[in-house]
Design a protein that fits this description.
Length: 129
C-alpha cells in the first residue's frame, strides 16, 4: 500500500521545492515533492500544492498557504533567476545563510567561491592565470 502525504504534513519550508506553472497570461507558484517509483524507474509526483501567483515580478502568497504555514509571510518566497525560493527565517550569520550564499554564487556562475571564504573575507581569485 502506498503512503500518501497530505498538504498539512509539509512543515520545513527550507527543504521544500518550488516550481512555476506558466499559462498564457499568468505564472503560478506551487510547492511539490516527487518520489522514486522503483517499478517504472522514474520519479512521480507525491504532492503538488498551490502557493500563489507571480504579479509584477513578485510572488504573492495565497491566504490558504499562509494559514498552512503560520511562520510564513508575504515576501518570504522570492524569484531568483526566474525560480521561486524560500528566504524566510534566515538569521545572519548562520549555517543556513552560508548554504543560501553558496547556492546563489554557484547558480549565477560567479567565481566559484565558498560562502565560508566570503564570510571570512578570504576571497580567492580563480580568474588569475
Amino acid at each position: 500500500m502506498e503512503e500518501r502525504v497530505s498538504a498539512e504534513s509539509v512543515t520545513d519550508l527550507r527543504t521544500a521545492k518550488f516550481g512555476i506553472q506558466k499559462t498564457r497570461t499568468s505564472q503560478y507558484v506551487f510547492e511539490y515533492k516527487n518520489i522514486w517509483d522503483p517499478v517504472k524507474k522514474r520519479s512521480k509526483p507525491l504532492y503538488r500544492i498551490s502557493v500563489g501567483k507571480v504579479i509584477g515580478g513578485e510572488v504573492v502568497i495565497k491566504d490558504e498557504y499562509l494559514q498552512m504555514h503560520p511562520e510564513l509571510k508575504q515576501g518570504d518566497i522570492v524569484l531568483q533567476e526566474g525560480k521561486p525560493i524560500y528566504i524566510g527565517g534566515c538569521s545572519v550569520p548562520s549555517e543556513l545563510f552560508e548554504i543560501c550564499l553558496d547556492r546563489i554564487i554557484n547558480t549565477r556562475g560567479f567565481l566559484n567561491i565558498r560562502a565560508a571564504d566570503v564570510i571570512a573575507g578570504s576571497r580567492h581569485n580563480t580568474m588569475a592565470a
